[in-house]
Amino acid sequence: MRRRAADYRRPVRRRLSCWIWSLLGIFSIVGFVLFVVHHHHDHEDHVEQPVSERDSRNEHVVHERMNLTQEMLSVNSYARQIAEQTTLAKAYIIIAKEHNNLHLAWELSTTIRSCQLLLSKAAMRDEPISLDEAEPNIRSLSSLILKAQDAHYDIATTMMTMKSHIQALEERANAASVQSMMFGQLTAESLPKNLHCLEMKLMADWLTKKSLQDFADERRNSPRLVDNNLYHFCIFSDNLLAVSVVINSTVANADHPKQLVFHIVTDSIHYGVMLAWFLNNDFKGSTVEVQNIDNFTWLNSSYSPAVKQLMSTDSRKYYFDGSQDTSVEPKFRNPKYIYLLNHLRFYIPEIYPQLEKIVFLDDDVVVQKDLTPLFSLDLHGNVNGAVETCLEAFHRYYKYLNFSNPLISSKFDPQACGWAFGMNVFDLIAWRKASVTSRYHYWIEQNADRAIWKLGTLPPGLLAFYGMTEPLDRRWHVLGLGYDVNVDNRLIESAAVIHFNGNMKPWLKLRINRYRPLWERYVNQTHPHLQDCATH
């Protein structure tokens, strides 16, 4: 049988194959389009919707790293929202009570306690407050605050009530501040039990041991006391342990301690105590003299206007009987300012008439370097060598003195730099020549009504030594360890003398513990009396 020509053959199989491939192509295209569209929607979902989730997760991570204090400072934290609502709710409690709405006040108080408990738990566990924890409290407080507002406790009423309570709180705070200052002053003036015990034991030694009294008589007229080839220091105090630390620290840091002479003046009550202590202790060959201020018969009211004022009835009434007068700061009524020992610094040439140069030390200082180079300093004809304090957080003349008084404004520069008592080198020859003590007397008489200065020995010192003070390198005398907790360690380490000026003395419980070791290392802890009294 003859085959047909190619043009006439049935193309059945070829047509079927084309349809199949066409359908497959169409399905492929549709599938690709559907895939692209689906992928596009998925991408949008990942971009738009989880952004907030990721942000919330990131915020949650950051949130978890914050402690409660940081969380309270965050504007988005639940803790801060609760704290702010609690503050507002407390105000509404006061207003509700004033309007006799005790039930609302009770509801607010109960919810506030719940919020405070939540904040306390969060602080203890050091974790942030979650939404689940915060939401019930926030909702409860919000509804109660709205309820209070609906009860006509409007913003004007709230502001007036809060203003009156703020004024009452300010008055209470001021009263508490004055009371705290008075308590601090009393603490600073008191003597710790262990030091009182030590003084009692030493007084017993002085009264019962005649050998001590004989030894004191032998040393009373030592030629070393008037030898100007030696280095002389004077301390005026009734605090035995404080004076002991001053002398111990000076001797311990001296290159030649045997060339040092210490002159102590105390009152009649502590005279025997001081002698019993210093005669029984060794100070590396240095000489220690103790004098009784009551033996200075020349220092009386007829010679010294300072003594006359200190002994006057008005002065004693001002310092002792005026404690109820709150218009005057408690520090202005400190009885130490009428204690004659504090004023002896202006009579050094009369106390030591044969000496030419001397270093004055307060009893609340610690010596850390050899002080003998002070005696070779050139004071350029000045009387007083002292560290100026106007570069510190202290004051210039106008801060100490009343420049509205024409007597002051006409003679002194209000911007003149102040200086410090506590470590001073005095040229006694220049002192006598300039009659500094007479100048001191003049200003004491002018200030009889306390119109020029209020208290202390520094203001009359600034007047008496005006124009006669040689500024020393600040490293000779660093102040502030009795009140400033932030004195630079480098400054302390470089200082020849550190001064615990202020109420927080190192021998008191009211002290700055950071500085106490600087003072305590010079206390003779091996002394049997100190060991016996340590438990008191």
TrEMBL record:
UniProt-listed Pfam families: GAUT_1, Glyco_transf_8
Spans traversing the lipid bilayer: 16-37
Pathway: Glycan metabolism; pectin biosynthesis
Membrane topology: Single-pass type II membrane protein
Subcellular location: Golgi apparatus membrane
EC number: 2.4.1.-
Similarity-based family: Belongs to the glycosyltransferase 8 family.
Name of the protein: Hexosyltransferase
InterPro entries assigned to the protein according to its UniProt record, in alphabetical order: GAUT (IPR029993), Glyco_trans_8 (IPR002495), Nucleotide-diphossugar_trans (IPR029044)
Domain of life: Eukaryota
Any one GO BP annotation for this protein: cell wall organization
Swiss-Prot/TrEMBL keywords: Cell wall biogenesis/degradation, Glycoprotein, Glycosyltransferase, Golgi apparatus, Membrane, Signal-anchor, Transferase, Transmembrane, Transmembrane helix
GO MF: glycosyltransferase activity
GO CC terms: Golgi membrane
